Amino acid sequence: MSYDLAVWDGDRPADDLAAAAEFKQLYDRYVGSPDRVEPTARIAAYVRALLDRYPDIGTDAGEDSPWSTGPLLNEARGPLVYFPMVWRRSEEVSAWAAGLAGEHGLNCYDPQDNRLRTPAGAAWRFELTSTRGRALRDPDGELVRRELVRLSADNHYAVLKRVDGWYIQAAYGTWAGTRPGWYVLERRDGGPEKHFRAEVVNVDEVVRAFVAFLEDDPTIAVRFPWHPYVV
């Protein structure tokens, strides 16, 4: 017997009844349909975060995994992932998975209890800061671009941090240990062993990297010349 959770991208439902109705609509449209829809970037990023802690069953790393099916990404359709876990570990794992959904700005619904598991009103998901200027919360791509094109010898770094601690940052020129006029990108995907660095020649590449991070675009890992970085 499994314990299931539904996590989806969208506005927060008004209450548990509204969440139940929205889950049914999403389930009928995406899970109940014979036509498979690829998961959205935010849902795929959430599933990757689940697997960072508990790898897929059937793999060497997933020997102690709580999931009841695998690959877990196969349970993601469009803006929804509906996934099962073993019942005996459901209290611990469902609480963590619901909290992780909140950190990713997603909704988590528990069909066993017919209730929404994510708390109302996470204050923010992303925060952009720079050498000069106040912190900007949940910026859009255009605001990110406007801040980054101002990087200079006097305004030499910018950081885009996600609420779960992941981040990408950029620094300019010799201050960052690179050639004059170049930029250094760094990103950290969780723990210190997932810290990467790249050097790029123009600010357009910096903007593309920050927007990819903002949009949970998985291609960020291959679109730039990253190499492992130890501080």
Describe what this molecule looks like in 3D:
This protein is of the alpha+beta class and 231 residues long. It folds into two domains: 2-116, no CATH class; 126-228, no CATH class. The protein has helices at 16-31, 41-53, 90-103, 141-148, 203-214, and strands spanning 2-8, 76-77, 80-86, 107-110, 115-116, 126-130, 136-137, 157-162, 167-172, 183-188, 195-200, 227-228. The chain has a seven-stranded antiparallel beta sheet with strand order 7-6-8-9-10-11-12, with helices on one face. Strand 10 and strand 11 form a beta hairpin. The termini are far apart.
Structural class, judged by helices and strands? alpha+beta
Gap between N and C termini? 46 Å
Strand content: 15-25%
Domain count = 2
Q: What are the low-pLDDT stretches, counting only 5+ consecutive residues below 50?
A: none
Over the alpha carbons, how many angstroms does the gyration radius reach?
20 Å
